[in-house]
Design brief:
By secondary structure, the protein is α+β, with helices and mostly antiparallel strands. Helices cover about 30% and strands about 10% of the residues. The protein contains eight helices and six strands. The strands form two sheets. A three-stranded antiparallel β-sheet has the order 1-2-3.
Length: about 210
Amino acid sequence: MRKVAIYGWPSRGGVIILDDAQAIDLEFLGLDPLNPQLERDADQDSEDEFCQRLLLLGAKWWDSCARQIVVERFDKGDGDPTDDHRRGIGRGPHPFPTMREKRWVCVAWPSNGGFWISEFDIHGFGENDPDSEIPEECPGLAKVKLARSMDERAEILREEFKGKWFRTLEEYEGMKTFLRAWEWKSTGEVGRRMLSVDEMWEEWRGNLRPIVT
């Protein structure tokens, strides 16, 4: 089944992606769920503002589109150590996924203020965080998709996904997500820098051969 992904193209480079976005995410971003904007904003300042809103929903800031695809393919592998893709990641131009790259993050901004966030390490590869593994008593993560509003999502996160509430963004000090990355991020997650849109286009033309940075 295909999922809806929302892309942002920040002036600092890289690409910000909210994967598996729901209708309430589009509404939070000021987009029409039935007729969303399909192209980036021609005004870069407006695009940067959009990128900051994306991060508030738990989006990830990738060094490039190719990096996101590499991690996604690795995640979908069957764990066979002889698999060509899994055997190739972790060395050379494809480092193992970082905690921020592989973390499951869901954020709700309810009408009564503040925000709720649930974040878990749900993958057994790359950098591990044993203190943030999803509890056994939590229901399937897909349940949050049933929320029809931010208020309902907040209730689900609070009652079933050990969500934590913060009055303001400044109160949230977690560095294992990209939620506040706009305040500090200026370099790549796994490389020295993030690729520009033109460089990412060159990656696509080169069949996703990575540009080593």
